[in-house]
Structures are given as C-alpha cells and as structure tokens.
Amino acid sequence: MKNLRKKLILFLFFPLILYTQEISVSPYVDKNQYIKRWPDSSFYKQPWRSYLETISGKDFLNGLGIGFYLHGNQDDDAVLKFLSYCGFKNIRIEIGWCNVFWDETRLNNEERLKNLFVSCKKYGIKPLILLNAHHGVPCPIKYENAEVLEDAQAGSRELKIKVIKGEIKENYTAIEYNSYKGGDIFITKYQEEKIILSKPLPCNFKKSDKIRLRTYKYLPFHPVGTSEFEETANGWIKYVKLICELAKKAGLEDKDFELEIWNELTFGSAFISGINSY
C-alpha cells in the first residue's frame, strides 16, 4: 500500500517537475499599437500594449513592489525596512512637477525625499519615480486673491476684478475654477481692472464675490515647434534634472532608480493635451 502511494504521488507530481524548467521565449511586439505623433492619444491604441516580455519566476519575485506615499510624520526608514523584510524590492512614488518651488532651485519635502532615497539604497529597494503633470496642479503655481467688481453672466468672456494680493500675468494667470478637472480659465488680457478670458464663464459671478487666481510658471503645452512649447518643455527638463540630482545626492546610481513619465488619458491630461483644452 505504501509503495502504491509513493508511485501515485510520483505520477501526479512528475509532470510538474518537468515543467519547472525555464522555457526560452521571445518578446511579443505589436507595432500596430504605436502612436506616431505627439501628443496624439487613443483609447484603442495603447503604446504599452505594443511590447510584452515574459520573464522568469525569479525575476518576477524580485520585482515585487508597492505604491509608496508620504503620510504625515511616518517613519519612512522603518516602513522601508519592514517592506524589505517582507520581500519587497521596489516602490513607486510620485513626485509631481508641482513639487518644484517657483524659483526651480529645490523641491518641496526635499530633505525627506533625500532620506527616503538613502533608505532605499540601504535596504536594497529600487524606487520607480513617477514624473507627472496632472492638470490639478501641473507645474509650479502662485496663488492670488481677487474680488469681482461687477455682476457677470455665464457665457461672458469679460469680467471686472480687483486683485487683492499679487499680480496678473497675461496668458499665465487663470481664474481657478474646478482646477482638478482642468477647468481653469486663463486671462488673455488685463487692462484697468477688466479681464478678457480664454473661454466663456461657466457660471454667474456677483459683485463682491471673492475668487482665487493661479499664475502658472509654464503654459499648457502648445504645438511642437512654437516658442511656448520650447519654454514649457525646457521647464519640464529642469524638473526632471532636479529629481535625478536629488537621487544622486542620496547615493543612488543610475541602476538604482527608474523614472516613469505618465499622464492619465481618462483624467488629468488637459495640461499636456494642449492649450486648446483651455
């Protein structure tokens, strides 16, 4: 009976032993999924679908990761130490363009981020740094307050306001309106308290209403080849350099971190989709 049981176990598990051998495979490539021209986008064609590589089980386990968020006063070093103990090898952390100070010399939470990268190096965890320009706060922004001086109806492209603090920069300053959904309305002209808007007002404004203005460091992307595009693209490059320089200051080498350039197609993409979104 015992011999029969051994034979049965061997019979059942022998095929599994055979199939644990690594099988050589070629990457799947579908060039039909490529999108040729920036900033074209498609809900059918997705560049990430154009390439698929099958990796070994060992590489898969070494790729275990988690989204990492900077919550309050949490001890990031202790969290990373625990994640490493649990077998995590990667974290994904977003450091958006809006984290850059207006003078573009440093980042918000720079010291904490540097210490985070030091801990990544110490515990053998590779950070995937998400570079993002969500239209809620797409780039460095300054805020001003203003007061409406005359009633204005929805659909109007003119408004009289008084700036309480700060200043208006034509084409760069916008009325904050549902900014998380890219609803800001840019001021294209400002003269003697009257402003001309890039698009019609979405609602009525009453005299004495308080509104908030946002001055963008950089304009939403214009067509490639224009001076506006070059200005915004150069600002993006400054931002990327700040991120990479911070990682290097923390002791990370090129092989120790990765960058992800990402912007949502379904939401958050107005800034990168182009100025016509506004």
Report on this structure.
This protein is α+β, with helices and mostly antiparallel strands and 278 residues long. Helices cover 27% and strands 22% of the residues. It contains six helices and twelve strands. The strands form three sheets. A six-stranded antiparallel barrel has the order 6-7-10-9-8-11. Strand 9 and strand 10 form a beta hairpin. The mean pLDDT is 88.
Compose a concise summary of this entry.
This protein is an alpha+beta fold. The chain has six helices and twelve strands.
Any descriptors?
globular; 278 residues; 6 helices
Q: What are the SSEs and their pairings?
A:
Elements: H1 2-18, E1 28-29, E2 51-52, H2 57-62, E3 65-67, H3 76-85, E4 90-94, H4 110-123, E5 126-132, E6 141-148, E7 158-165, E8 173-175, E9 185-191, E10 194-197, E11 210-216, H5 227-249, E12 258-262, H6 270-273
Parallel strand pairs: 3-4, 4-5, 5-12
Antiparallel strand pairs: 1-2, 6-7, 6-11, 7-10, 8-9, 8-11, 9-10
Helix pairs in contact: 3-4
- How many beta strands in the DSSP annotation? 12
User: Portion of residues in helices?
Assistant: 25-40%
Classification by helices and strands: alpha+beta
Shape by Cα distribution: globular
pLDDT averaged residue by residue? 88
Q: What topology, given as strand order, has the largest sheet?
A: 6-7-10-9-8-11
Report the end-to-end length measured between terminal Cα atoms: 79 Å
Strand content: 15-25%
- The sequence of SSEs as H and E is HEEHEHEHEEEEEEEHEH
Rg is 26 Å
How many helices in DSSP terms? 6
Give a quick account of the main beta sheet: strands, pairing sense, barrel closure: 6 strands, antiparallel, barrel
Low-confidence regions:
none
